[in-house]
Amino acid sequence: MNAVVTANGLSKRYKNTLALDQVSFQIESGRIVGLIGPNGAGKTTALKAILGLTDFQGQLNVLGFDPRTQRDKLMEQVCFIADVAVLPRWIRVHEAVDFVANVHPRFNRAKCEAFLARTKLTANQRVKQMSKGMIVQLHLALVMAIDARLLILDEPTLGLDILYRKQFYQSLLEDYFDENKTIIVTTHQVEEIEHILTDLMFIRDGKIVLDADMDAVGERFAEVMVSGDKAETARQMKPLDERQVFGKSIFLFDGADRTTLEAMGEVRRPSVSDLFVATMKGTYA
Amino acid sequence: MKTFYWLVKREFWENRGGFLWAPIVTGVVFLVLNVMAIIAAEVMGARHGGFEIGGNNLQELVAKASSGDLAKIGAALDMTMLSVMGLISIVLGIVVLFYCLGALYDDRRDRSILFWKSLPISNTSTVLSKVASAMVLAPVIAVVVGILVGLLQLLIFAIVLSLHGINVWQLLTLAHPFRAIGSLISAIPLYALWAAPSIGWLMFCSAWARAKPFLWAVAVPAVAGVMVSWFGIMGLFDLPTTWFWSHIVQRVLLSVFPGSSLVFNKHSLETASDMNGFHNPLDLLAPNYTYGLLTTPNLWIGVAAGAALIAAAIWFRRVRDDS
The complex's ipTM? Predict the structure, then answer.
């Protein structure tokens, strides 16, 4: 067991809403965890608690530190990219690199400059002159040059075009991630990250409603395409969700017997987004 | 230490306009206005047949001057050199005031605090680097610029007068540029201590306010002052109402303006009212008088209040969670 984050009974209350409600989970080293939930479910609050940016009740241990009191120590090992708007607008590329190089003990300047050389960014360019995609390239170059153990991404590709989004995750996988690193990512663009995730966590109304690795998800959940005559049988097996495509019904089952399902029709592994929609039914109602 | 140096450097990058360019632009504008005034005077003088005062040539005037007159000429030259510093001081006060109000607020508003807080830097270092920028970095730059522009100003005057046949070196020996430079530099540590309660209060508002730190910073002391005046609360302590305005309101808001301490210095008031006598303006800035402030509780209570407010600002920097 090599836990990077251990949360026990984590709660956070804003004035009249409970953002996190007695949440407990554990994240191990070398994983890529997708933390997925509807707007206002508590994703960002959970990440902020891990980063020491907010107070909370309960126990939380990140790499052996208490994020509330040891944030400055913790951040030597943890990197964070919130959405693209958080780099200060006045800063120039070379200033950002100089600054991080001199205050971060685990920053590799050569690595950062190599990443930047692959972009169109120039040393004297200010953040306010950059497009969103360029800002995220700069931020990614800074972060990937830091030898951290935990990388937290909160909607990192919000508002980027598809070229930048693809490039973002590709760089992360090819040039950054290895078995000593852990990535926690939240996003609404689930389709883009589902093939890179090793673990999946669904959060709803401050509670974790699903916490499993991707293999377990594949074993537990199944999607069956059933023709009209067998639909009634399938409905009796209490599917999570049902939808119609080309006159056939697609049912999503949680923990149903494989052989029974295979008898009814073609069985597939459900996509994370379909699973998400089915799990979160009625959230905004 | 290295981290702290880079934190201060970052403040300089972000506030280059206020810290560096504001005093330089002020100084240059001042010089340009002076040169224009000199040219205007020359043109007028030429029209009226030579540059003469009271029928005498300037050179004769200097030659015939008594020692008292020479002291006055020296004082006038010192004044020439110092006047630009006066202007830059006002600019410095405004820059520091708004810098402090924005220092712990602007990055919360534009959410770049999420970037700064993702680096392994403690809140204490961050806040202290901003305090150091306001207390030391900004005044040092202002004084250096003030001295350079002052010397340039002196040089320009000397050159203009020498064109009228006056011995420049004789004039310059009447002035006291080195004493002026020494006085200005010595004023920096005193400024840092004197400005502490203002810097502390403004930074506290900057770290604490969820919106509009300027309004809070001004409204709280002003409303308190009005209440105190209305209800005559100071009477309870056997003090006049003006005491509250001068010792609380002014100290938390206006002490960022260099020279605001002169009001509390008896010696300086006497000197100022005595200016028509033989006093030199440098007497106002002489360290052996200005540092008399170190013996007053006013200064030290202010420093303590400033330290407490900065500590509170550090705490709020950690817990304010609105980005």
Answer: 0.90
**Site of tokens 């730059």:** B141
Q: Give the sign of the dihedral formed by CA B67, CA B69, CA B73, CA B75.
A: positive
A132 plus A267 within the same structural domain: no
Q: Which residues pair with A265 in a beta bridge?
A: A226
Helix/strand/coil for A201: strand
Q: Answer whether A190's CB lies under 8 Å from A273's CB.
A: yes
The pLDDT, as a whole number, for residue A285 is: 67
**Positions of chain A with pLDDT under 50:** none
Q: How many residues are present in chain B?
A: 323
Residue A159 lies in a domain: yes
Could you tell me if A191 and A268 lie in one domain? no
**Which element (helix H / strand E) includes A102?**
helix A93-103
C-beta separation of A27 from A7 below 8 A? no
Q: How confident is the model at residue B270 (pLDDT cuts 50, 70, 90)?
A: low
Contacts of B318 in chain A (CB under 8 A): 71
Q: What is the CATH number of the domain that holds A8?
A: 3.40.50.300
Token code pair at residue B99: 């810098």
Lowest mean pLDDT among A195-204, B126-135, B258-267: B258-267
Structural domain of residue A30, as residue ranges? Answer: 3-205
Q: What is the pLDDT, as a whole number, of residue B62?
A: 65
Shortest CA gap B204–chain A (Å) = 19
Rounded-to-integer distance, Cα A70 and Cα A11, Å = 19
Chain A residues with CB under 8 Å of B1 CB are: none
A56/A50 Cα distance (integer angstroms):
10
Check: CB of residue A153 under 8 Å from CB of residue A125.
Answer: no
Residues A188 and A250 in one domain: no
How many domains is chain A partitioned into structurally?
Answer: 2
Which chain B residue is nearest to residue A51, measuring alpha carbons? Answer: B118
Interval B157-216: pLDDT, tens: 888 888 877 777 777 788 888 888 999 999 999 999 999 999 999 999 999 999 999 999
Q: Between the CA atoms of B42, B47, B48 and B53, what dihedral angle is there, to the nearest 10 degrees?
A: 0
Q: Are residues A28 and A133 in the same domain?
A: yes
